[in-house]
């Protein structure tokens, strides 16, 4: 005797245990992405996004001359420094005669959707939207679309299982991200380190925090030592002279938040990769800026992970950090639109 599966009435929507449509969270991310794309941010801030102008010019150059107008070493390292996948994508856009504005808006939409989708799993859809609607993240998703694209894909891949049938596809896709933006090389290194720290069984909470802090300090020294050489090899688009360091007051918030994360980790028996990652990046980014190194770009990228980690802080530190974050956010908006 065979047993047939029960059928659902036509039009029935499968819902979560709480009675909410399984698609409702996806619609919240869709709404957030549309908000980021269609809000006239350049009018709000009173200035155009310079990076969008540069990408538009590059697409037109590729349309007229193809990739032969650019030079790179035909090696893995050469492809990495040239960020070959990004240029290949721009070349495809040029060949298909897609309008640059349409393409760039599509990248913004995709990045905003994946970023919100990641963060909402930790703090809910509404709060995720409020957190990500800050000037730093808006500028990243709307202007610095290349780094936003690479990091949003990283967020989508990072939550998967390290093993399993499709694990090799996930790891392969991650390893391809530096060919979109070379900064992802460091992001992947920090991610790997965070994963390792979370599974070390004999590491005490205090020692774990010390290890993360020392690792951030060592990374600052490494960057200070080798970044000028790497910038020269990568060409004019990496020249450090054009980088404007943030003021001490601007960066101090992130340093204090990193210290709070580290202090809280020292009092927890276990931390997630998100927590270790957020602690490292906030400490590294703020320390690098104090030494006139371009570290804040990593903090800007990591904001979704940082806020995903904050609910795991000890209660008293979490409450203080939330108050400090709210005040910082208000100041950011004020100086952004004035």
Q: How many domains, as an integer?
A: 2
Q: Please state the overall shape, judged from the principal axes of the Cα atoms.
A: globular
Report on the biggest sheet.
none
Query: For the terminal residues, how far apart are their CA atoms?
Result: 74 Å
Q: What is the strand tally? A: 0
Using only CA atoms, what is the Rg? Answer: 21 Å
Fill in the keyword field for this structure.
mainly alpha, 16 helices, disordered N terminus
Report what the structure shows.
The protein has 338 residues and is mainly α. It has two domains: 25-182, no CATH class; 186-338, no CATH class. Helices cover 70% and strands 0% of the residues. The chain has 16 helices and no strands. The chain has helices at 24-38, 41-45, 50-65, 76-82, 84-95, 100-123, 125-132, 135-142, 145-158, 167-176, 184-198, 205-234, 248-265, 273-290, 296-309, 315-337. The radius of gyration is 21 Å and the shape is globular. Mean pLDDT is 83; it is low at 1-20 and 236-242.
Write the layout of secondary structure elements.
Layout: H1 24-38, H2 41-45, H3 50-65, H4 76-82, H5 84-95, H6 100-123, H7 125-132, H8 135-142, H9 145-158, H10 167-176, H11 184-198, H12 205-234, H13 248-265, H14 273-290, H15 296-309, H16 315-337
Helix pairs in contact: 1-6, 3-5, 6-7, 6-9, 6-15, 9-10, 11-14, 12-14, 13-14, 13-16, 14-15
